[in-house]
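Reminder to self: tokens first, then the designed residues, so the page reads top to bottom the way the pipeline ran.
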């Protein structure tokens, strides 16, 4: 081990990685602090090795088992350098790659793994997003920080490379960590320099690539792209050749979804951070990893392009209406390999023979899919065939035939990879190898026939090579030409000169055959890698078919309907349902209607009655329609939106020094700054995190601003019943409420949305349902009744009830003041506090005095005594007209 540790430490310093895995013979070893780290993280055993009089911790894994350990370390946020031996000896090593969270080629499953470089130039941000596992390279530019963060959030990157002007921006970097959980890595400033970055892009994608995608050659987008390419090349992943195209996209093509909205709508994870229960998990009936990635991408990046959405809806309709054809398509797709990732593995040189066999198997499905689509009249009339037409069918067939002809039916590891007849030299070596193996296989029988030995076997191990093993009872009969090599408890091992010669011949043939197979396989893998673009095209086509069939499967099973896409600001949903909640409970459908004079809905109703679910389902129906899916409703006319913004609940973020109310106000601020008249806004309980008078004021002002200035379609749930007054004063505001029925003190939430405001919120009933102790619930009802009757409420002290002479408090509904009365209360005056109770709830609006005037009281008495059920509509209208005149 002399010098090994010193070499390890030198390579570690050179790599600048968190951890170094260094090849030593048949193992990757970790030394010193790295050994302790991997032992703690991966539960490896630590031993001690000495070097130059010092002892160092050491841990290792076999060469063939590095991948899972590497993946585990990188997914924990570490960068891991890998040093390989060069040549047959173990004296020369060099770092061949560095795996980082954004460049981990060994990723598995359906999740994409993006590395995103971000450059700021003035108010413009350039973003280059690379997934090295699939060869995806996307580029865009946006005009402000808010939109840049939103785009970052869409990709959920594993790693972000901030440009030089962003590294010192603590607010931006903190927002990136908070919104994406990404690792922020510092890359060399020179990589972001305009000249070098532009050169990198032109070298990779061609001289006119930037101009073709509408990006200035030295702008922030080009600089981000060049830095990302440089970083991928520097880490040594070796997949630059799989980055075959620069895919531009305009952020304006997609519906704006900020991180808060994605979290609140639980698109890919629930509020608890779990995938189960999210929209993506509920809809995911895909049968390939490629399809699952495409499905999630569509959900987090809904489109504004109507033509493309109509095309997706046409495909979903064709598949949804034809169950047999849909099942056949899904059956053909089932088990298809992840061609996008296999292309990257081929270009990086990490694909093994079984990976190439999976390429053959998957390419063989393309003709079957094309036949299923074109042979069915209903599918042939849809755009499904256009999806497959993006793949060069002839080139795909040629590549499949080339690889299939080369590989054995079940290709082995180092040998047995190729079919007989593929290479003459390899066939000769294989034949010679088979003859030698046959000689050894029949040696024992020949020995028995040619000698007196009846208990003899032939075997092989790493220490002794091939040997003849004879039991002790017959060793006296062993011919003199046998050479003893080892004595065991019950037998002895022997070799002969002929056996030595045959073994040398076999080892030579095995070595030559393995070398030839490696040479041929490298050539075959390179041939497949040269068709990376073809494999990516095929992978994307299969992914799209899988995602479309998934939408159709879910639509058919759950009675979803095709939305009518509109270019105006209409949103008209009949019997809409929540796509996730309907899977677990018997769901009550509800309408959602927006149009002229109805673009701001104030939603009131009891706690726990379904207001939040109603608002979220409306937003999800819009997003599903613009993802290309059918929607959970009897019918839906959807005017395309440019963004969906939500504020639904909030949690304290004390670590960042932000209370619930601060988070709420920051989310509200983002909405008021970002939303447009083409957006959909969902607000839940704005202003509830502070004093009632402050909260009502903020909610009132926000409503006016959204109505008058932003003019977005808005759903605003509130318990501030004062806001319902705005419906009579603002042209576009309408009241809706979630209904409830009360009988003999029992409340039933009907979960039906109807026009008009709610009369109260039944908060005490919800407290009772939640298990609040009976004395508290009972006392709450008593206090509420007294408040509604404008009666004094006694303040109970100690463990008993209110005694004679105890202080009483009167809440003036008109002024919002508390006044103390009674023997213990002293003079009338303000007792402090702001009331903080729910507004409305059937109470009369006061003018600051203790009682209503006699005429108003008389009107109320008549109103209370009116039998509505036994009065004609005309009679009721006449009475209301008379009461209004008397009140005026």
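Designed residues (888 positions):
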């Amino acid at each position: 081990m002399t010098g090994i540790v010193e070499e390890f430490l030198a390579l570690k310093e050179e790599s600048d990685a968190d951890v170094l895995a260094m090849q030593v013979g048949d193992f990757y070893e970790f030394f010193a602090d790295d050994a302790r780290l991997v032992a703690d993280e991966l539960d490896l055993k630590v031993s001690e090795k000495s070097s130059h009089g010092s002892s160092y911790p050491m841990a290792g894994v076999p060469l063939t088992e590095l991948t899972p350990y590497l993946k585990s370390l990188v997914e924990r946020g570490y960068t891991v350098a890998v040093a390989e031996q060069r040549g047959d000896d173990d004296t020369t090593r060099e770092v061949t790659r560095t795996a980082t969270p954004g460049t981990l080629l060994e990723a598995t499953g359906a999740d994409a793994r993006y590395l995103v470089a971000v450059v700021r130039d003035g108010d413009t941000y350039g973003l280059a997003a690379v997934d090295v596992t699939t060869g995806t390279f996307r580029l865009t530019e946006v005009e402000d920080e808010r939109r840049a963060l939103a785009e970052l959030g869409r990709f959920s990157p594993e790693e972000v490379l901030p440009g030089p002007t962003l590294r010192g921006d603590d607010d931006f970097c903190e927002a990136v960590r908070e919104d994406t959980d990404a690792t922020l890595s510092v890359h060399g400033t020179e990589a972001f320099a305009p000249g070098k970055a532009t050169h990198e892009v032109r070298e990779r994608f061609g001289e006119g690539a930037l101009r073709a995608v509408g990006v200035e050659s030295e702008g922030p987008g080009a600089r981000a792209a060049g830095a990302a390419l440089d970083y991928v090349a520097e880490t040594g992943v070796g997949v630059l050749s799989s980055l075959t195209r620069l895919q531009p996209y305009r952020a304006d093509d997609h519906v704006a979804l900020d991180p808060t909205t994605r979290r609140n709508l639980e698109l890919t994870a629930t509020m608890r951070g779990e995938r189960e229960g999210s929209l993506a998990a509920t809809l995911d009936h895909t049968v390939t990893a490629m399809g699952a990635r495409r499905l999630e991408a569509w959900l987090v990046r809904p489109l504004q392009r109507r033509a493309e959405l109509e095309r997706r809806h046409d495909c979903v309709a064709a598949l949804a209406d034809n169950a047999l054809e849909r099942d056949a398509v899904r059956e053909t797709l089932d088990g298809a390999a992840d061609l996008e990732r296999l292309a990257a593995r081929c270009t990086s040189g990490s694909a093994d023979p079984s990976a190439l066999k999976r390429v053959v198997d998957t390419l063989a499905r393309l003709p079957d899919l094309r036949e299923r689509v074109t042979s069915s009249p209903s599918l042939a009339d849809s755009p499904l065939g256009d999806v497959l037409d993006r793949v060069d069918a002839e080139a795909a067939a040629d590549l499949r035939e080339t690889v299939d002809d080369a590989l054995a039916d079940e290709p082995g590891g180092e040998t047995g990879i190729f079919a007989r007849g593929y290479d003459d030299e390899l066939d000769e070596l294989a034949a010679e190898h088979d003859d030698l193996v046959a000689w050894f296989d029949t040696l024992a029988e020949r020995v028995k026939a040619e000698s007196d030995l009846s208990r003899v076997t032939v075997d092989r191990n790493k220490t002794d090579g091939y040997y003849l093993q004879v039991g002790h009872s017959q060793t006296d009969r062993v011919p003199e030409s046998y050479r003893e090599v080892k004595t065991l408890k019950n037998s002895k091992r022997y070799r002969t000169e002929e056996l030595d010669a045959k073994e040398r011949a076999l080892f030579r043939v095995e070595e030559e055959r393995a070398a030839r197979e490696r040479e041929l396989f490298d050539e075959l893998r390179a041939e497949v890698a040269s068709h990376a673009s073809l494999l990516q095209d095929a992978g994307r086509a299969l992914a799209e078919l899988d995602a479309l069939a998934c939408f159709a499967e879910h639509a058919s099973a759950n009675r979803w309907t095709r939305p009518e896409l509109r270019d105006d600001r209409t949103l008209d949903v009949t019997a809409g349902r929540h796509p996730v909640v309907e899977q677990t409970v018997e769901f009550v459908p509800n309408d959602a209607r927006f149009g002229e004079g109805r673009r701001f809905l104030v939603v009131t109703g009891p706690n726990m009655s379904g207001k939040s679910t109603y608002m979220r389902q409306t937003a999800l129906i819009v997003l599903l329609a613009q993802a290309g899916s059918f929607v959970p409703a009897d019918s839906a006319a959807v005017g395309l939106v440019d963004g969906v913004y939500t504020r639904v609940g909030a949690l304290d973020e004390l670590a960042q020094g932000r209370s619930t109310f601060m988070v709420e106000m920051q989310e509200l601020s983002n909405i008021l700054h970002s939303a447009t008249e083409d957006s959909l806004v969902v607000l839940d309980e704005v202003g509830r995190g502070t004093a009632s008078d402050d909260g009502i004021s903020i909610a009132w002002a926000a409503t006016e601003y959204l109505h008058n200035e932003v003019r977005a379609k808005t759903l605003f749930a509130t318990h501030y019943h004062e806001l319902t007054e705005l419906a009579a004063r603002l042209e576009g505001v309408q009241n809706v409420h979630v209904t409830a029925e009360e009988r003999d003190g029992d409340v039933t939430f009907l979960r039906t949305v109807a026009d008009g405001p709610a009369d109260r919120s039944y908060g005490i009933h919800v407290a009772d349902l939640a298990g609040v102790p009976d004395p508290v619930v009972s006392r709450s009802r008593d206090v509420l009744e007294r408040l509604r009757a404008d009666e004094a409420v006694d303040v109970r002290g100690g463990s008993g009830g209110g005694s004679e002479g105890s202080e009483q408090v009167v809440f003036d509904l008109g002024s919002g003041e508390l006044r103390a009365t009674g023997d213990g209360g002293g003079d009338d005056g303000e007792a402090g506090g702001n009331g903080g109770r729910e507004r409305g709830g059937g109470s009369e609006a006061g003018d600051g005095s203790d009682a209503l005037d006699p005429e108003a009281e008389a009107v109320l008495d008549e109103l209370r005594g009116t039998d509505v059920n036994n009065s004609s509509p005309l009679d009721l209208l006449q009475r209301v007209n008379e009461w209004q005149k008397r009140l005026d």
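The radius of gyration is 37 Å.
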